[in-house]
């Protein structure tokens, strides 16, 4: 019986470990801070880069900074959801408004390090900051900005984006909600 228990434990670890995150990065979670305006906020996805098997150091860091902004409309509720599959992290956001639902989905392939939003794809290594805009018709426009450090706060992210887009009146007007 004592010989069977270690074997069962190894088999259990093998079964549980089959669905773990893979790729060049693993995500731990995300944090979202809304704007004072009706639709939008900043999402920060944190995690760590893949380490060699013999390393236990997991230097947790912010991997993606995403600013999402939509048209100024009356919001009747909002939701967000994230999932981390074997190679993909997906972030879904939706708002119910008097004009109907608005939604955006962002998908990061952690193996190829490509972030897809709307009809565009970006190589995350070229910039870990993204701006996603929804217009009144529900169309998605996205752009990639220069990299930020690995431990930036929401206010530092907003300041960085405002500095990168100094002539954008909407971006300049954004203020974070502070509870």
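Sequence proposed for the structure above (179 residues):
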């Amino acid at each position: 019986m004592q010989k069977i228990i270690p074997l069962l434990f190894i088999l259990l670890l093998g079964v549980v470990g089959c669905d773990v995150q893979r790729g060049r990065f693993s995500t731990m979670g995300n944090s979202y801070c809304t704007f004072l305006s009706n639709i939008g906020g900043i999402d920060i996805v944190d995690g760590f880069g893949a380490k060699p098997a013999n390393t236990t150091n997991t230097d947790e860091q912010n991997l993606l900074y995403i600013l999402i902004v939509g048209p100024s409309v009356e919001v009747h509720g909002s939701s967000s959801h994230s999932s981390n599959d074997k190679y993909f992290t997906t972030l879904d956001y939706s708002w119910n408004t008097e004009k109907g639902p608005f939604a955006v989905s962002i998908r990061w392939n952690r193996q190829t390090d490509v972030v897809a939003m709307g009809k565009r794809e970006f190589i995350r290594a070229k910039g870990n900051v993204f701006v996603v805009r929804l217009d009144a018709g529900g169309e998605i426009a996205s752009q990639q900005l220069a990299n930020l450090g690995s431990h930036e706060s929401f206010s530092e992210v907003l300041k960085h984006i405002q500095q990168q887009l100094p002539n954008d009146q909407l971006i300049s007007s954004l203020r974070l909600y502070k509870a």
